[in-house]
Amino acid sequence: MNLSFSEEDLKFQDEVRSFIADNYPADIKNKMDNGIPVSKDDILTWQRILSKKGWFAINWPEEYGGTGWSVTQKHIFQNELADANTPTLVPFGVSMCGPVIYTFGTQEQKDRFLPGIINNDVWWCQGYSEPGSGSDLASLKTKAVKDGDHYIVNGTKTWTTMAQHADWIFCLVRTETTDIKQQGISFLLIDMNTPGVEVKPIITIDGSHEVNMVYLDNVKVPAENLIGEEGAGWNIAKFLLAHERTGIEVYLLLREK
Ligand SMILES: Cc1cc2nc3c(=O)[nH]c(=O)nc-3n(C[C@H](O)[C@H](O)[C@H](O)COP(=O)(O)OP(=O)(O)OC[C@H]3O[C@@H](n4cnc5c(N)ncnc54)[C@H](O)[C@@H]3O)c2cc1C
Predict the structure, then answer these.
(1) What average pLDDT score do residues 176-183 get?
(2) Mind listing the pLDDT tens digit for each residue in 204-213?
(3) Which terminus, N or C, of the chain has the lesser number of Cβ atoms within 10 Å?
(4) Measured from the CA of 136, which atom of ligand 1 is nearest?
């Protein structure tokens, strides 16, 4: 087996390396190299630089703004980012919610939500875990009751990473209670500015603020924010976890003390 890069790959590596050298802001590099926490603005600045170059949503299909790179090119790109010690790309929009929307969403939902993710205008967080529903995720209890063209959502999400920065949260909610707990779960997008959404910090043992409780109290969510069919959320959840858990080695550097 030949594990060497081809001439073309080496050229690509040079291109990526020079782009990072020319465009990685010195102030963010200084923080990263010295273990100083980067801010939300730092993360967005770097992600927007990549996005402008067309190098942000590298795994998305080209029709939605992906790169069309080979597996080797993606590997080279990730290696170069790591070698340059750039901030970790926040996965909630680009690696989790985006793939769900372009795979299961309607054309209207794709048009509405994908540009905000790829341009880094909208910060997403993940509302899966609940108090008492972690490993046993399908036992989740957050309830969404249909009321005309809206859902009324009540429940509590926990360990929600960077919810304090988020504009939107993608949530697993229970739209029906059946004997089989994996049934009756739906995938709903909720604007964090909706009345009834409250974020409270969880300060971890190292004193940092990365995770949160998110309380949902009679939150009125337009039914058009449902992704896929009502009750089909468990399949979507598993699809998303396949994207999430392949990035499990990522350590999020945006920590606040
Ligand atoms: C830093 C951090 C960030 C996170 N960010 C998010 C986020 O943004 N959004 C989100 O939705 N969630 C998030 N989570 C939640 C995370 O995915 C859950 O912690 C995870 O699902 C485990 O749930 P739990 O913590 O309730 O543990 P539990 O489910 O209570 O498990 C506790 C322990 O018991 C073991 N255990 C559980 N069930 C069994 C069993 N049947 N048999 C044997 N052993 C068992 C587990 O392996 C574990 O060791 C985050 C967690 C952390 C630590």
Answers:
(1) 94
(2) 999 999 999 9
(3) N
(4) 29
Q: Torsions phi, psi of 160, nearest 5?
A: -75, 105
CB 235 within 8 A of CB 14: no
Q: What's the CATH code, domain 95-245?
A: 2.40.110.10
Q: Which residue out of 90, 125, 159, 212 has the highest number of ligand 1 atoms within 8 Å of its CB and is therefore the one to mutate?
A: 159
Alpha carbon separation from 214 to 52, 131, 219, 233, 256 (Å, rounded): 32, 11, 12, 20, 18
Q: Residue 254: pLDDT band by 50, 70, 90 thresholds?
A: very low
81 pocket-lining for ligand 1 (C-beta < 6 Å): no
Given a cut of 70, whether residue 220 has pLDDT beyond it is yes
Q: Position of tokens 């909208």?
A: 122
Check whether 246 has a pLDDT greater than 80. Answer: no
pTM for the structure as a whole: 0.93
* Mean pLDDT of the residues in the chain: 94
Q: Among residues 104, 220, 211, 214, which one has the least CA distance to residue 152?
A: 220
pLDDT band at residue 2, thresholds of 50, 70 and 90? confident
159 Cβ closer than 6 Å to some ligand 1 atom: yes
Ligand 1 and 164: CB distance under 6 A? no
Domain boundaries, the chain: 7-89, 95-245
Give the C-alpha separation, 170 to 225, whole Å.
10
Q: Which of 88, 129, 216 to mutate to test the pocket of ligand 1 (most atoms within 8 A of CB)?
A: 129
